[in-house]
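User: quick one
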Amino acid sequence: MSTLFTTPRTKKLRPAIQAYLDEHILQNELEWLKQPFGELESMLRTHKQAMQKLGVWNLYHSAEHGGPGLSLTEVAQVGETLGQTVFGLFLCNAQAPDAGNLELLLKYANADLQERFVAPMLAGEMRSCFGMTEPDLAGSNPVRMHTTAVQEGDNYIINGRKWFTTGADGARLCIVMAITNPEAEKPHHRASMIVVPTDTEGFCRERNISIMGHDGSGWLSHSEVTFTNVRVPISNRLGGEGQGFLLAQERLGPGRIHHCMRWIGMAERSFQMMVNRAAGRELSDGIMLGDKQMVQSWIAESRAEIDASRLLVLHTAHAIETQGAKAARDQISIIKFTVAGMLNRVVDRAIQVHGGLGVTDDTILSFLYREERAARIYDGTDETHKASLAKRILRKARH
Amino acid sequence: MSTLFTTPRTKKLRPAIQAYLDEHILQNELEWLKQPFGELESMLRTHKQAMQKLGVWNLYHSAEHGGPGLSLTEVAQVGETLGQTVFGLFLCNAQAPDAGNLELLLKYANADLQERFVAPMLAGEMRSCFGMTEPDLAGSNPVRMHTTAVQEGDNYIINGRKWFTTGADGARLCIVMAITNPEAEKPHHRASMIVVPTDTEGFCRERNISIMGHDGSGWLSHSEVTFTNVRVPISNRLGGEGQGFLLAQERLGPGRIHHCMRWIGMAERSFQMMVNRAAGRELSDGIMLGDKQMVQSWIAESRAEIDASRLLVLHTAHAIETQGAKAARDQISIIKFTVAGMLNRVVDRAIQVHGGLGVTDDTILSFLYREERAARIYDGTDETHKASLAKRILRKARH
Amino acid sequence: MSTLFTTPRTKKLRPAIQAYLDEHILQNELEWLKQPFGELESMLRTHKQAMQKLGVWNLYHSAEHGGPGLSLTEVAQVGETLGQTVFGLFLCNAQAPDAGNLELLLKYANADLQERFVAPMLAGEMRSCFGMTEPDLAGSNPVRMHTTAVQEGDNYIINGRKWFTTGADGARLCIVMAITNPEAEKPHHRASMIVVPTDTEGFCRERNISIMGHDGSGWLSHSEVTFTNVRVPISNRLGGEGQGFLLAQERLGPGRIHHCMRWIGMAERSFQMMVNRAAGRELSDGIMLGDKQMVQSWIAESRAEIDASRLLVLHTAHAIETQGAKAARDQISIIKFTVAGMLNRVVDRAIQVHGGLGVTDDTILSFLYREERAARIYDGTDETHKASLAKRILRKARH
Amino acid sequence: MSTLFTTPRTKKLRPAIQAYLDEHILQNELEWLKQPFGELESMLRTHKQAMQKLGVWNLYHSAEHGGPGLSLTEVAQVGETLGQTVFGLFLCNAQAPDAGNLELLLKYANADLQERFVAPMLAGEMRSCFGMTEPDLAGSNPVRMHTTAVQEGDNYIINGRKWFTTGADGARLCIVMAITNPEAEKPHHRASMIVVPTDTEGFCRERNISIMGHDGSGWLSHSEVTFTNVRVPISNRLGGEGQGFLLAQERLGPGRIHHCMRWIGMAERSFQMMVNRAAGRELSDGIMLGDKQMVQSWIAESRAEIDASRLLVLHTAHAIETQGAKAARDQISIIKFTVAGMLNRVVDRAIQVHGGLGVTDDTILSFLYREERAARIYDGTDETHKASLAKRILRKARH
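Assistant: Done. Structure below.
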């Protein structure tokens, strides 16, 4: 749309990436999606190298850490282009949860962990996972977390069960959130983040959880994992004792920009498919599907909703850059539920315009419909974000 | 809810079926869904026998044809109970498309076909499919159908391609819609329905179409099939020449009641799961998920929408019984789009209330979300039904 | 639509009423609406007599009390026909709040009140009002009601302020809800209903509240009234001490059926206007407004929503008749929020189809849009009903 | 929200205007709204002078024409602040239709008209109206316009009927759209704009049209006017023959920015009222209305929708500034339907949160609900804009 947030770098990067995706990725995507993701990883290396050449490897990182050193508003724009395909961010070593984990590790991990894990992760040779959500808990409820890490000498002994541990299948380390300070007055001060190499005794990936008919594997897995008397050095803790939720917040702030831009990329692609279908499908002599006003209203509303979402996200990225993530809390909540809802609606309309074809796995729409239903749930449900936002607004009004 | 449409038969049948489903089906359903449907068929025979004992075998048929001889409003109520599980109607030999095919065959098939196919189908020993939709066509557009049946001596030579041919995998016959009278003035008078045994030379099931991540098989397959110089006797035609669409309408009328009641069964089950989750999930000490008003509003709206849908459907069934399907056209359109939309919304809310669990395949909700997205598309999209209904209303207003 | 709930009486009454409304009321309605309602009352007497002749005077009452003795499902159907115009129920002496007040008075008023007020009210010669809502309170919150009635000898001394006291302008008596038992443990047992003739010293109608640009008067007024040391005999209390809320519930149950059917009448009329406009408005040569699919979708959705609403209401009336109002509580909540929302949507769509004309006062639509926005608020907001319904459902699920 | 579009001028002007509105306007607004608008005009002069002092007189104009010379994005921001009250733009001599008329007159009027009308209009001493819409036409349909202007010597003889002629009551001139070239091939080339002083013989303001219960007068009137053999010099035509629609487009482009920002001002004010009510209203001991999640969800959704709307509008203003109105056509359509719909929803929610009070005329909400229902209709209905937008998108996709 506009050039308001365009920079020389985004102007150069976006068309180059688009051209590469068009030629090498988008046309193969459906075929790849039929294979276990774990098996694709080696094949995808060529394309990773291409992204390195394009200059978007380690997309979120500074030059110092092997990244392009983009600003957040630049990342958001490039991320939208990459987000058109589920493979995009992975090819730039910017997939969740590794991107977020890397930020934590770079900032808080001890020298040993830096050496063993951070360097290979930056090189894309190692993957990690993040153990936060528990099966019996609503969201990441700190009051009721069951996983514990008890000090014993220089070690933590960790016990517990996590699920939705994204990318656990094949990961070499897991950052786990565990209760270290059960006696802390504020529930938010009870947990810490601890690095657990996945080959540690007692760490077990129980299963990959099948999600919406997709029994993930490799980096696109969501696993259930257990910790049974897992023993790691206390120095594996990231940040101070009881700072787990503080760090999680830090990790989630920009992470939501990343998700949102990816979703806009998907929405834009679904939109284009909807438009192409409506423009090209003849119903009867000379009457095209796109001549039907019900279809037109979906196209118009989708265009408006995508544009609004993009502006909200870029504006939020700008606010984070200029005022910090904390000052932009309200906006971060707003984009989380606005963009997730928008994506779900746009994909749903695109499917409807495709008719029977839309529900088959012959187009990417079915995958987006299934995979991204969770957008309204993870990293805080829409409802959680709405309630927090409203409470903050109401609190201000009382003063 | 009410006893308005209850009869002694529904009063007896529904709790008996419910008890059987609770004990034998619902608890195994998730396990079964992981297996290819084709492989389940023999195992399910025991349960089919149970349904025979309960007296709901050949659910839609009269006693003469081995059915319970229920009225349409009774069928609708029993069908809701069975519809709670994807296996319900299958166990009663009342799955689509066999039920609709049987009606056509019983009425129009020649003696030979009756003997070879109808008897075993009524016994549940043989399955059939229905070849209507074509890949390059919007819906069942009669103007642009490409499949042809050309007379040659006493035979039709059929050529063409169909997809969304439900249950083709394992079917023994296919009722195919083909253009027999290309010169007929009205496009609706150009096609005929013809019975093609699936072992006829030139009939080919090309593939089962993967739908929403589910690569169906057996009776839960939707296949792409081709006809290459398929030769069948002219006497295999059902009804007169060019009457294909007329018969299709006949077939679809009560068929929509069947779909709608099944959807209400699914919605009711999803609703119950949503309520149970909200009632049983503790967020923090003493605060349950169901205490949250956003959840309460979904429960209330779902309850209202399900009840409204059920009344509309029962009322439509009553109208068909008393005034005929043609007089009830408007109501049939209304229930098609109202109930399909309601189901999609209720399942979506139930998933949201389940949080992360809702998108996993650990509950039935994900299956319903994926499998029933097509409810707003098949047998006429919502939009087609809305437009036809509105046009009929407008036409009346002009006179 | 259907004949499911039709009886010989509704079959005879509805067309007769419709004919009368068509000839005498609907065409004059816009003109009348421009005048203060108080001034219309004498002119409307002729039409009241016509309704008496048609046999629908005192619509809700038994023959014993001068009414037609209809069942609730019959009342609902006749009420829909009358509800097409704001004058309909008034002409049958069935307007709120008199209808509800009469039921209370007939059942609970002492002989003196019966004689002085009930007889002339049944004759349509006297009107009444109901003082429940207070300006500083959310709804009819019993915990925080400020109006008190203190015993002094044989009298109550009443002090307080009420608003939304419908019909107070010109009313001869007011049934007021006041706290008589502040010490009662349960808030719901603290208030009583007391009859106050409006000429009692200390009763003051402060103003008619202007609502949505309409500064009502006469029976279509909503007034603010004050009670300053108003003294009435204790025997003016209706029912036992502290039973005010119990009686209010009793009064509201069938009252909601009355509102809902009136709303369906209004929706049906708005629908017909929308259809006629769409059918008759030419956009360009031969292209009618109704040819546009966006308009078609509104027509189809409105038809479906009105039909569903009617079935829900009739079914609820049937449930009240057969099982009592208490057993039908859930259904009463459902129709309250479903029908109010439906009415608001249908009127809004009808306005949009009328374009500029729709917002003028040249059609009835603007009046319905303004006057009936309150439908989602009074007698319990949509949200209150949704929350109560959901809580009852959740409570059952816990057991 | 952000400072992205803030400039030194908006930073200075907005708080100054806000302070003035708070002190002098907002608190009196409800009282003023009860009076005929025509009678308020002289009283409002003081406040107009205040706006002159604040430097926002002739808000849209350059310094040369006595305005502040703001850029369009600056105007949009200042316009939001002023838009909080219906009196805001009027006090800055920036009310519709005068603002748009002035632009046309400044650019196209002959010297005589400039002298007689433009100078006093810029001084706020004279008002004008715009005669476009006709009673029997859908929108401003050029094919079917009935008003004609026939040349006779040096004059046009104008005949026809217009309605929704905003501000005609008290206007000194009317710019009328009339068919001058009925034979032109393209319907869009048939009409011209002609200036008619309202004291010309044959010009008649028939009535002020009552809209949503508000029988406007003065500058807040929408009148029906007739032209009967109205004779004006040909030189009163603005622009070339047959350029009427071209000029109308020119007039509407920035006009839509003006409307949209005014709507955002209203939405923001309604939002604040909703929040204040929710924060301040106690339901029972310690439980505030704002503690209810249904209210919270409205607050959160409204905040998100207002923010998105503002960004879309500012971004569109920016696009018009940098690329011209034609290049920004899609965005102009998007903001028209997005912001109008948003305003209607936010006001509706604010009313619901206010309960009974919300439908009374004791707050500004009822006025906004009624007055701004037309936002979805005038200057092109939502549906017209959606259809045009979609068609342009589809056209591009076909190439």
